[in-house]
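Hello K.,

You asked for the raw outputs rather than the summary table, so here they are, unedited. I folded two proteins back to back in the same session to keep the settings identical. This is the first:
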Amino acid sequence: MLSTILVPMDDSEPAGRALEYALDNHPDAAVTVLHVVGVPSMMMGDAVSLTLEDDISEAAADRAEPIFDRAHEIADERDREIETIVGFGHPARNVIDRADDYDTVVLGSHGEDWSRATRQFLVGNVAETVSKRAPVPVTIVR
C-alpha cells in the first residue's frame, strides 16, 4: 500500500487527470501536488521574469496559485486533503530530485499534443524523463 504520492501539476487536463487518478485509486495515501515555476524556454522568459521580481518566493507562489486552486477543487470533490509545494526550474529535474521522499510519482502525459511540440523539443518530455530516471515507481496517466 502506498502512503505518499507526488503529483506534478501544470494547467493541463492530463495533469488534472493524474491528480484524480492518485486521489481515486489511493484513498489512504497522502498526496502532494508539485507545481514548478521558472520553466526554461528558448528565450528563458519565465525563468528570467522570476529573477526580476523583488520577492521570488512570493512571485512563484502567485504563479502557482491558479494551479493549486484547481488541485484543491479536485481534492474537495473527493473530500480529500492535499499538500502543495512550489518548485523552481526544470519540471523533470524537480520531480526526480524530490521523488525519494515519496512512495511513487503519478503524472499526466501530454501524448501527441502538437500544441506543445515546440516546448517538448526545447524542454524535453517530462513524463518520459521522469519515468526513466525517478528512483521510485512512476505511473503515467493519459
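The second followed immediately with the same parameters:
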Amino acid sequence: MSKYAVTLRALETTDMAFSEHVYATSRADEMSHSGWSAGEIAAFLSMQFNAQHRYYQEHFRGGEFLIIELDGQPIGRLYVFVGKNTLTLIDIALLPDFQGQGIGTSLVHQQLQRADDHGLAVELSVETYNRAQRLYVRAGFHVINETGVYLRMRRQALVTSPAVAS
C-alpha cells in the first residue's frame, strides 16, 4: 500500500490543461525517440490527447473521469467505467515525480476491491512495453487480445462466498 493519502475528485473543465500535461508526460519516453522537434512533439501530443479525450467521452458515457490529488495538488488522473458486468480501468497515469511510490498500485487495488465487492470482472488496455503489466499479472489479469502496441487484459470477477454467521 502507498504511504500517501491521495484523494480523487471529478475532472473539471479547468483541469483539461493539467490532464493534457499528464498525458504528455506519459508519452515523453516514446516521443524522445521520434526525431521530432519539441514543437512538433507538443503539437502531436496535443492532437492525440484531444482525440483520446473525445473518444473516452463518446465511448464511456457515464464514466468516472477523476483527478488524483495529493495534499490538494493534482498529481494524475484515473478514468473508470462501471458497466453491468465489467469495471473498465480506462486510464491511470501519474506525473513522473509520483510514479514508483505505490500510489498507482494502491489505486488499482482500490478499483479491484470495488469490482470484487460488486462481482464485476475488470478489463484494461496497456502498452506492450509498459512496466505496469507486471502489476496487472500479479493481480490476476491475463491477456485476452493484442492489437498493435496494446494488450487487452482481463481479470475475471471474483466469486466471494457470503460471510458465515458465528
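The helical segments are 16-26, 28-31, 38-59, 103-117, 133-138.

Happy to rerun anything if the numbers look odd on your end.

Regards,
P.
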